[in-house]
Amino acid sequence: MSKQYDRDYFERWYRDPALRREAIGGAARLARKVAMAVATAEYWLERPLRSVLDIGCGEGAWQPALNKLRPKARYLGFDSSEYAIARYGARRGLHRAAFADFAMLRPCAPVDLLVCSDVLHYLDTRELDAGLPGLAELCGGVAFLETFSSGDEVAGDTHGFRRRPARFYRERFDRAGFAPLGSHLWLGPALLDAAATLETTR
């Protein structure tokens, strides 16, 4: 049976108080994560954040947190969940698309911050390889690619989790043109020439 990102899924993993604290971390943890990503992008761009693209955005939880920090920044989210788009699409700027659609889909100019959080380790290899080069093209600044590997202790939703070694992702991110900054943050191809030798963890 294929995984369904429906109302029951989001109620369980994002609104059940016990599970949220254990696996997702709640609003405070999300706010810290968003603040870290925004600060890192602005450090590299040397200006305030203007645009964010969130691929695999779910209900668009990043949008309210980003709006508190940078209310003038433009947020655009994409997800495959019919439920999430129907419920939050108009309010949070969400649209429907699967990850593999980004092999061709270019919904905007390259953005300051590209987000793909807690997505890649659920994708099969073919879909991941199809969409990842598109993410690199759409990243004009920094990417937050929160991804977990077989060496990590994973809490929360493990249904469909692909237990791949870390090198699987590192090799693909490197081929796509991303350079590691740490804490799931990656410098996009457009800014690689601006990096000093010890600013990345390559």
UniProtKB/TrEMBL annotation:
Q: Which InterPro entries match?
A: Methyltransf_12, SAM-dependent_MTases_sf
Which is a Pfam family this sequence falls into?
A: Methyltransf_12
- Extract one GO molecular function annotation from the record: methyltransferase activity
Outline the extent of the Methyltransferase type domain: 53-137
Q: Which GO terms describe its biological process?
A: methylation
Q: Which UniProt keywords apply?
A: Methyltransferase, Transferase
Q: Does the keyword Methyltransferase apply?
A: yes
Protein's recorded name? Class I SAM-dependent methyltransferase
Organism of this sequence: Cognatilysobacter lacus
